[in-house]
Specification:
mainly alpha, 0% strand, elongated
Length: 113
């Protein structure tokens, strides 16, 4: 069983739930945090599944993990946890960026062969 794929699927479900809560149950800044987190998490859940199909497990893991950290901190703030969690959000964003760079490197290496 590929646990990265399982986590990517759960990440997609979490993103949809966050988006729905943001659209129907949140107020104020929480709406934007849920919208932003849901968008990034959903995009990267799909990106992780595509990366896995391309045999790029490392980038896929960064997409899932980075998505959980990036979006998760926004979700937690939307639920009322301390705003200092916003300082952790960029760590997830950095993981997402590294995942994309790693995927690009992997694909470029294949083209060069």
């Amino acid at each position: 069983m590929n646990w990265i794929a399982v986590l990517a699927a759960l990440s997609g479900a979490m993103a949809v739930a966050a988006g729905a809560f943001g659209a129907h149950g949140a107020q104020g800044a929480a709406v934007e945090w849920l919208k932003t987190g849901g968008h990034y998490q959903l995009v990267h859940a799909v990106a992780a599944l595509v990366a896995l199909q391309l045999g790029a497990r490392g980038p896929a893991a960064l997409f899932v993990g980075g998505g959980f950290v990036f979006a998760g901190t926004l979700y937690l703030m939307a639920l009322g946890l301390p705003r200092w969690l916003g300082a952790v959000t960029p760590i997830g964003g950095a993981a997402l960026i590294v995942g994309w760079l790693w995927l690009a490197w992997t694909l470029a290496s294949r083209v060069a062969k």
